[in-house]
Amino acid sequence: MVAKRKKIVEYENAAEEEAETLQTVTSQITVALNAEYEEEQCACYEDDPIVLPTMSKEKLRK
Hints:
mainly alpha, 2 helices
C-alpha cells in the first residue's frame, strides 16, 4: 500500500512539473508572437508621418 502511495505521489509530482513546463513554454511563445506582431505593425507604418507619432505615444503609455 505504501509503495502504491509513493508511486502516486511520484506521478503527481511529475504531472505538476510537466504542467509548469508547458505553462512556461506557452508564455514564451505568447511573448514571442506578441513581439513579432508588434514589429510587423511598426514596419507597416514606418513611412507614414501621421501614424508613427500616434504609435509612439501609445508605446509610451504602456
